[in-house]
């Protein structure tokens, strides 16, 4: 037994091998740190590799290029703001599904880096349209699609009457969060968590009243 335990311990002086998932998360953590310090222009594959304590070749084995790296990071950021529903949650009424999917999670305290990414994407968008498209697809676009899936489910179950679930999803996504434009212009205008929660609750109530009864919303 002791021999088995010794064989499982990493040998002194040799680096511990990381699994694929651990390596991916370490790279994304390094990306966040480099981005905070150096902005978009300084967030190169080489800089991220150095911060992660890896070779650039290793980083490229995980992510094909810088766009793929940012796409993965934006996907991780999105999961800090929305949580895809499991099978049990999908069986709940529409209001509960939307609340579970979209409820604020320490939003104000975690907004700095997403805001910095948005600012950088706006500045670099004309020169890097691929990065801008990635941001839209992995950020706002993906959130709207998650909302739309629940609205489509609600229509199929007779919970709501909505002619254009895509437009309704975009409307709800805009209603539940503070305007990014306001915060970009004046970062101090970002409300606290309590105000954000109150806005979220109001938006859900107003939205559901509009889609629950009456003729199909357009």
The end-to-end span amounts to 69 Å
**CATH H-level homologous superfamily name of the largest domain:** Tetracycline Repressor, domain 2
Summed up, the helix count is 12
Radius of gyration: 21 Å
Strand content: under 5%
Task: From the 3D structure, determine the CATH topology of the largest domain.
Answer: Tetracycline Repressor, domain 2
On the 0-100 scale, what is the average pLDDT?
82
Task: Indicate the CATH class of the largest domain.
Answer: Mainly Alpha
Secondary-structure element order, as H and E?
HHHHHHHHHHHH
By DSSP, the count of extended strands is 0
Biggest sheet record: none
How many domain modules? Answer: 2
Q: What does this 3D model show about the protein?
A:
- The chain is mainly α and 218 residues long.
- The chain has twelve helices and no strands.
- It has helices spanning 2-8, 20-42, 45-52, 56-62, 66-81, 87-90, 94-102, 112-124, 129-157, 165-176, 180-185, 193-212.
- Helix 5 packs parallel to helix 9.
- The protein is globular, with a radius of gyration of 21 Å.
- The termini are far apart.
- Residues 21-81 form the HTH tetR-type domain.
- Residues 44-63 bind DNA.
- This is TetR/AcrR family transcriptional regulator.
Explain the layout of strands and helices.
Blueprint: H1 2-8, H2 20-42, H3 45-52, H4 56-62, H5 66-81, H6 87-90, H7 94-102, H8 112-124, H9 129-157, H10 165-176, H11 180-185, H12 193-212
Helix pairs in contact: 2-3, 2-8, 3-4, 5-9, 7-9, 8-9, 9-10
In short:
The protein is built from 12 helices and no strands.
Please describe the structure with a list of short key phrases separated by commas or semicolons:
disordered C terminus, mainly alpha, HTH_TetR, 2 domains, 218 residues, Tet_transcr_reg_TetR-rel_C_sf, Arc Repressor Mutant, subunit A, TetR/AcrR family transcriptional regulator, DNA-binding
